[in-house]
Amino acid sequence: MSSDPVVFLPGMMCDARLFAPQIADLSRDMVVAVAPITCGARIEEIAENLLESLPARFALAGLSMGGIVAMEALRRAPGRVTRLALMDTNPMPETEQSAEGYAPLIESLRNGRIAEAVEMLLGGEVLAPGPARAGVLALAGEMAHGLGAETIIAQVHALKARRDYQPVLSGCEIPTLLLCGAEDRLTPPRRHERMAAVMPRSRLVIVEGAGHLPVLEQPQAVTAALRDWLSRG
Fold first, then answer.
1. 212 near 187, Cβ under 8 Å?
2. Domain 6-231 classification at class level
3. pLDDT of 69-93, one tens digit each?
4. From residue 47, how far is each of 68, 75, 84, 205, 211 by CA, in Å?
């Protein structure tokens, strides 16, 4: 098992509660931390601010926007990141069309309709159907309300200005876990398959019965994949 601390980076609208099942399990025998992705106006600034407070060497696991920040941290400090886990994320830059798609989300947030914004982001086919879905959505709403509309709007703007991280991944030589919910329509499995194709030291795990938030939808399967990742030489 890796002796380096594990640092989790949550997705947009989320806080440490996103990884509550993994923290409860992994913290029994290793150092686990969660770093916020709210400290900057751009992905580059967020990553740089985080690196100032993180240990000299650490394993890094990010989900969705947290995965994008993780890729930027790897780009800036490759010698400090000893392992990388990218979950339900996207290494590609924002397109003009997808950037325009954020307009209704920002409008809802500006008008204080945070619950509506959460439904826009995670509703529809983004999460897997089933009895756990309502609870996951409810927790997502609580996390979003805790962060507040202005913080989430800043996260949206940071995402819209992100760079292309595919060159970073193609040069990555550390043990990497690529994980995605089988029913994630926001950052689908095929995108992670393309990431795996250019990363020779990566392992791809598709989690059945999960969508964009497999850490909450199928926590045991995700924790098992993370333990395997942390034990690889």
1. yes
2. alpha beta
3. 999 999 999 999 999 999 999 999 9
4. 9, 10, 14, 26, 26
